[in-house]
Structure formats: C-alpha cells, structure tokens
TrEMBL record:
<dbReference type="InterPro" id="IPR012340">
    <property type="entry name" value="NA-bd_OB-fold"/>
</dbReference>
<feature type="transmembrane region" description="Helical">
    <location>
        <begin position="6"/>
        <end position="22"/>
    </location>
</feature>
<feature type="transmembrane region" description="Helical">
    <location>
        <begin position="52"/>
        <end position="70"/>
    </location>
</feature>
<keyword id="KW-1133">Transmembrane helix</keyword>
<keyword id="KW-0812">Transmembrane</keyword>
<dbReference type="GO" id="GO:0005886">
    <property type="term" value="C:plasma membrane"/>
</dbReference>
<dbReference type="Pfam" id="PF01957">
    <property type="entry name" value="NfeD"/>
</dbReference>
<dbReference type="InterPro" id="IPR052165">
    <property type="entry name" value="Membrane_assoc_protease"/>
</dbReference>
<keyword id="KW-0472">Membrane</keyword>
<dbReference type="InterPro" id="IPR002810">
    <property type="entry name" value="NfeD-like_C"/>
</dbReference>
<protein>
    <recommendedName>
        <fullName>NfeD-like C-terminal domain-containing protein</fullName>
    </recommendedName>
</protein>
<feature type="domain" description="NfeD-like C-terminal">
    <location>
        <begin position="84"/>
        <end position="141"/>
    </location>
</feature>
Length: 142
C-alpha cells in the first residue's frame, strides 16, 4: 500500500499539532500550517523539492510575521490586579475620622480600618480619600 505524499504532509502537520497543544508554543502551529501548505502543493502535483520549499517558505514567513505580533500583543496586555492590589488607588469614603492613629472608611462596599499616610493630616467623616496601600487589614489613605 503506497501512501501519497500529501497524506504524509498531513500526518506531519498533525504530529506538529501535538507538541503545540502540550507546550503551548505557537511555533509548532506555524510549522503545522507550513506542512498543510506542502500537503496542498503535493496534492496539486508539485514535486518533492517544491513541497519542501513551500513548507519552509510558509513556516518561516509565519514565524517571521506572526510571532513578533503575538509577542507584542502578549507584552502589551495589562496585568489583572486582584485582592488587595486591586484596592490600591481606589477612592474611599471616610466614615469615622481618620488620622495617623486610625479611623474607618468605606472601601469597595466594605468597612475598613484606615490610617492617614501623613500622620499630621486628619480626614473627617464624609470626605473622600484615596487608598495608597493596604497594610495588613488597614488601608493607608491620603
């Protein structure tokens, strides 16, 4: 039983798809697309040399064009802040006077203990303050 060249290229594409899924390295996917392009070339009657050239050209072109775009996109994605990191920089409402020794604020729908960043400064009930950092269970505000 003789298997056509285009089938071998498809088998190669599938074989390249396995490490793509296991390692999440997009380069394997680009090589798999190159193998599919070589399979199409073989199906249309192209010779072995043309098949290899198409495989190499498509793979290199995808890696040269798509990889830098994907890298730039991945680097530009904002980091998702969660937990106390998400509270930094938010506004809060003073419920009880806040000074260097303590007080209470309403932050993100919850009541928090708070203290002023500047120990000489005091914030009265009803004022809006900004959360600078979270120190344990205490919001440091200004």
């Amino acid at each position: 039983m003789d298997i056509d060249a285009w089938v071998w290229w498809l088998i190669g594409a599938a074989a390249l798809g396995i490490p793509l899924v296991l390692t999440a390295m997009p380069e394997f996917g680009m090589l798999a697309v190159g193998a599919v392009a070589a399979s199409v070339t073989a199906g249309l009657g192209g010779g072995v040399v043309l098949q290899v050239v198409v495989f190499a050209a498509v793979s290199v072109a995808l890696i040269a064009v798509v990889r830098p775009i994907a890298t730039r996109h991945r680097a530009g994605r904002p980091e998702l802040a969660t937990g106390v990191e998400a509270l930094k920089g938010r506004s809060a409402l003073v419920l009880e006077r806040v000074d260097g020794s303590g007080g209470r604020i309403k932050l993100a729908g919850e009541i928090w203990s708070a203290r002023a960043l500047d120990t000489d400064r005091a914030y009265e009930a009803g004022q809006e303050v900004d959360v600078v950092e979270i120190d344990g269970a205490t919001a440091v505000v200004m």
